[in-house]
Design brief:
The complex is a heterodimer of chains A (296) and B (230).
Chain A (H helix, E strand, L loop, with lengths): L6 H14 L1 H36 L3 E6 L5 H6 L1 H5 L4 E7 L1 H11 L17 E6 L5 H10 L3 E5 L8 H36 L2 H9 L4 H41 L11 H27 L6
Antiparallel strand pairs in A: 1-3, 1-4, 2-3
Chain B lengths: L1 E9 L5 E10 L4 E5 L6 H8 L7 E6 L2 E2 L8 H5 L2 E5 L10 H11 L4 H14 L15 H14 L4 E5 L7 H16 L3 E6 L2 H6 L3 E6 L2 E6 L11
Classes of the chains: A alpha+beta (296), B alpha/beta (230).
Bound molecules: adenosine-5'-triphosphate and magnesium ion (MG).
Chain lengths: 296, 230
């Protein structure tokens, strides 16, 4: 004899019990929302920091512009002089035509930079450093080389970016894992409180000959529904908070040292991760909570 | 059919609740199980429903050997039993009908079977007018009738009642007992645990008396005359 499974029934039982146990459901959803918001906010800060660090790291170099009066082949010959400067690991010659191409490719679709004559650009060297902490001295020395008109570097560059970034990455992963564990624990306990009144109900079902699977399913659906509701609520709250905080930072930060990534392109991924995490927390919490009551 | 052969039961704290009980109940019988408080009556019921396992001896219930039953088989064994308790154990947040539907759902009955069976059982226990009430809107006797209806609804071979009239006045108790007798006449085996001497003596049934974990008398058409009781 096989047990018949009627998932419509499980779903409606699960849904029903969310309303019959209104307050506990509300508490569980609040917990899920809080956990997701904490995790989400932390992850978004990490993503922003990561993107800023990688921008900065890419600038382990500076550019030296060559005097326009110098012909291109003479300019190219300056490479040896520049590479002779201490702490320069490598100098890469870029013609003005190439510079124009690169620039236009980078700002594709931006009319402001389109169709400018190649004369607007200068021949240049991209200069890579051995030790980024000596940037200022190296830059000054390169400026002294005859034929170099000017140099440009990103002033924010500090040493040790890579190290900081690696540490920050590791800390982020550890914190997210801890948060996930803590939220699972809290949810399991919230749902355990919610199911405590239902021990009797479960005992009655089992006395009537219900299988464990039969008893479990409505709880799983209940957890999934709570997880979904929590995820959607958390998503919109997260969006609002992100935009508010982002605007506040951009408003304060007059020199635009910090660039806040826009939310929209990440929205779908955030929603996806929230819903998945909500499902895991909700269903996992329910199952953990009723496990004890099933031993009747 | 139930068979207990030299059943022993010691609880984890060392209490020896049963000290070698032999009992055989055949299909169609009506049996009273009587005895003083703490004599081991509920322990026997819990062994039969597989809530607890025996410490020794052999135990058969409706064709299932409970000595080595697999956990996944327990629900199917329980479907051959209907259980009734002193405190009714209804789901307070469901109506009378929903309580019965719930029990049928639990064993995988189809909506059609449920629609047919629930009114029949409610009628049998005399509650056909009160199916939509909540348990809290019923008297104690009526609530016990709902519990009896629930025990019956899945058409078990046997009904086991642990002090079903313990919370009821003598008049209601008699009514409940007569209902159980009627159910027995319709073909269901009955095992009824009770303290109530008067009640037992109004019916001429088999009476099994237990004291201190041992069966001390077992007489058909018996009379409950244990002096030490209550
Ligand atoms: N879970 C338990 N753990 C330890 N001892 C128990 C447990 N349940 C019952 N006992 C003990 O086992 C003995 C038999 O208990 P049981 O409940 O079977 O008695 P009973 O005949 O049903 O009594 P009553 O008429 O009061 O319901 C008693 O001494 C009781 O204290
Ligand atoms: Mg008892």
């Amino acid at each position: 004899m096989r047990q018949r499974y009627d998932f419509g029934y499980f779903l409606s039982e699960g849904f029903h019990s969310i309303f019959t146990h209104g307050f506990m459901s509300f508490a569980a959803v609040c917990m899920i929302v809080c956990c997701l918001l904490i995790m989400g906010s932390f992850t978004l800060v990490a993503v922003n920091a990561e993107s800023m660090f990688s921008d900065l790291e890419a600038e382990n170099q500076f550019t030296a512009y060559i005097d326009e009066t110098i012909p291109q082949d003479e300019a190219r010959a300056l490479q040896d002089d520049i590479e002779a400067v201490p702490n320069v690991s490598r100098a890469e010659f870029v013609t003005k035509e190439q510079a124009q191409e690169d620039f236009e490719a980078r700002y594709e679709g931006n009319e402001l930079f389109e169709g400018l004559p190649a004369d607007t650009y200068r021949d240049r060297f991209h200069i890579y450093l051995d030790d980024i902490s000596l940037l200022a001295e190296t830059e000054a020395a390169v400026k002294e080389v005859a034929g170099v008109a000017d140099t440009q570097s990103a002033p924010e560059i500090a040493e040790g970016f890579t190290v900081i970034r690696n540490i920050a990455g590791a800390v982020a992963v550890i914190l997210v894992v801890i948060l996930l564990a803590v939220s699972l624990f809290i949810i399991a306990n919230t749902i355990k409180l919610a199911t405590f009144n239902r021990r009797e109900e479960i005992a009655i079902m089992k006395m009537c000959g219900a299988t464990n699977a039969f008893v479990r399913w409505p709880f799983v659906f209940e957890g999934l529904i709570l997880g979904l509701v929590g995820a959607v609520v958390a998503f919109f709250l997260q969006w609002g908070i992100y935009v508010l905080v982002g605007n506040a930072i951009s408003g304060e930060d007059t020199i635009s040292l910090i660039t806040v990534l826009p939310f929209q392109p990440m929205a779908l991924r955030v929603l996806g991760v929230f819903v998945l995490t909500g499902f895991v927390i909700g269903a996992g919490g329910s199952l953990a909570a009723i496990r004890k009551f099933l031993q009747v | 059919m139930i068979r207990l052969i030299d059943i022993q039961k010691s609880y984890d704290n060392g209490t020896k609740a049963l000290k070698g009980v032999n009992l055989r109940i055949d299909d169609g019988e009506f049996v009273f199980l009587v005895g003083p408080s703490g004599s081991g009556k509920s322990t026997i019921i819990k062994l039969i429903t597989a809530e607890i396992a025996p410490s020794g001896g052999r135990l058969m219930v409706n064709g299932y050997n409970l000595n080595n039953i697999r956990p996944r088989q327990v629900p199917y064994m329980r479907r051959t039993l209907g259980v009734i308790f002193q405190d009714f154990r209804l789901i307070e947040k469901k109506t009378v009908k929903e309580n019965l539907t719930f029990a049928m759902r639990a064993v995988g009955a189809s909506p059609r079977e449920i629609r047919k069976r629930v009114p029949y059982v409610l009628d049998l226990v005399g509650l056909d007018q009160k199916g939509d009430r909540m348990p809290s809107q019923l008297s104690g006797g009526e609530q016990q009738r709902v519990a009896i209806a629930r025990a019956l609804v899945n058409n078990p071979k046997m009904i086991i009642a642990d002090e079903p009239t313990g919370n009821l006045d003598p008049m209601r108790s008699l009514e409940i007992m007569m209902l159980l007798e009627r159910i027995n006449e319709l073909g269901t085996t009955l095992l009824v645990v009770t303290h109530e001497k008067e009640l037992v003596n109004r019916f001429s049934k088999r009476v099994v008396a237990i004291e201190n974990g041992r069966i001390i008398s077992d007489e058909t058409g018996g009379y409950y005359n244990n002096e030490t009781t209550i």
